[in-house]
What we know:
mainly alpha; disordered C terminus; globular
Amino acid sequence: MSWTEERIDTLKKMWDSGMTATQIAEELGGVSRNAVIGKAHRLGLQSRPSPVKPNEAKAEAIAPAPKPAAQPAAAVAPAPRAAAEPAPRAATPAPASASADAPAEPREPSAPVLRSVGPGGFVRQNPGEQTPPISPAPPRRLVPAKPSDAIAGKTGLLDLNDRICKWPLGHPGEPDFHFCGDKVNPGFPYCVAHCGHAYQAQLPRRDRRPPPPLPFGGPRVR
DNA sequence: CCCTGATTCGC
DNA sequence: GCGAATCAGG
Length: 222
């Protein structure tokens, strides 16, 4: 098997949507997961959280190690990405739950951080502030290998790109499994509406809603 | 053990 | 460029 443009395209999109190398290899067929990983790196695709540490933590001297606040002061600064770094975007997965600010720390009105707040109450991250949340949990196995008729006109796996909502509709493996496909809320993998589902503000326990929406249709029994 | 992705290196 | 072998963390 060779890396045709089509297969490379599939690899890119699956990698981008959070599929594991094993799953991508199964989907493509004829290649091992090692081949997929190797190709992904050669293509310069975004690194995924690796189990292996790069080994780099020797900056702590005898200084009384002040705990760095989670919120840097330079929140409004534009993308501080190093110019030498070839990676155009860093999508290192991070827990969607943001730190719940204690009520004892009121925001200074004199120094407002420019943020927009979505319909679900989620707080929009400014550039360079924090890494965006990960895509929905990838399915363990089956992914529609071939576009079926049921998916015609809908946003399939191969239609994913950086500008459309990756919110999954239906269950992976089912014929009509597809993605939302709306225009994304800039900076997020989802559209505004689905950001509202994905990022819910922490509500008081008294009136919390029981059904938390789960990406990819939630856990499934087979 | 299983899984994962990263890296190396002979081809 | 390719990918098996190897490594290393979870």
